Amino acid sequence: MLKPWKLIIKMSNKIHDDIQYAGFGKRLKAFTFDTLIICGYIILLTVATMVVIKIAEFMGLSLRWPENPILADMIAFLTLILPVILYFTISESSPKQATWGKRKAGIRVVNANGKTLTGIQAFVRSLIKFLPWQIAHTSIYHIEGLPFAPVAPPPMVIAGFVLVYLLVGIYITSALISKNHRTPYDRASGSYVIVDK
Question: Of the residues 24, 28, 40, 92, which has the fewest C-beta atoms closer than 10 A?
Fold first, then answer.
């Protein structure tokens, strides 16, 4: 007969053995669904921006996208990227442990104990996950003359785009081949993506 503490260990190992980590296919499916949410938000943001511009014109004001690349990048971050990061943060630290896309794909995000991520864990996870998107925006805003007469991008912009592709490549490769299909943003936040049973 097993001693009580050995029985507990055996039971916990059995529970752990039952966990199925979400592979790249399921994660991609979830992100594809979430991209629909992101695209919907981008459309709403575009419509809202056009309405504000029309109202400003009606009032005799002229609103233009700032020429200062730092200010333009900051506006894009605050109005587009940060809300998307917060959507993932709030969803993955909620009792459902998943965004809408993850629920559709049948997966969820948990910590090392199988519990819900804290708000900070979920924020770190989302921030690192969408870092390539932010770097791409920053690089684009530092190309002079966009969108109508762009000039050759400076070396720092080219380096930014190289970094974007490098990070995305690392994210995809790690989800494909690493143990438990963990990405750098999973490791940084102490999270695991598992199949919801």
Answer: 40
What is the C-alpha separation between 65 and 120, in angstroms, rounded? 33
CA 168 – CA 176 distance, rounded (Å): 12
Long-range contacts formed by 182-190: CB under 8 A, 24+ apart: 182/21, 183/129, 184/128, 185/124, 185/125, 185/126, 185/128, 185/129, 186/125, 188/124, 188/125, 188/128, 189/117, 189/121, 189/122, 189/124, 189/125, 189/128, 190/111, 190/112, 190/121
Question: What is the band of 12 on the pLDDT scale with cuts at 50, 70, 90?
Answer: very low
Write out pLDDT tens, residues 33-92: 999 999 999 999 999 988 988 888 888 777 777 778 889 899 999 999 999 999 999 999
The pTM of the whole model exceeds 0.90: no
- Which alpha helices (DSSP H) does the chain contain, by range? 4-17, 24-58, 69-76, 82-92, 100-105, 119-129, 131-141, 155-177, 184-189
Residue 155 · residue 69 · CB < 8 Å: no
Q: How far is CA 84 from CA 60, 63, 124, in A?
A: 33, 25, 13
Contact 194, 107 (CB under 8 A): yes
Least confident of 41-50, 97-106, 143-152: 143-152
Place of tokens 């981008």: 42
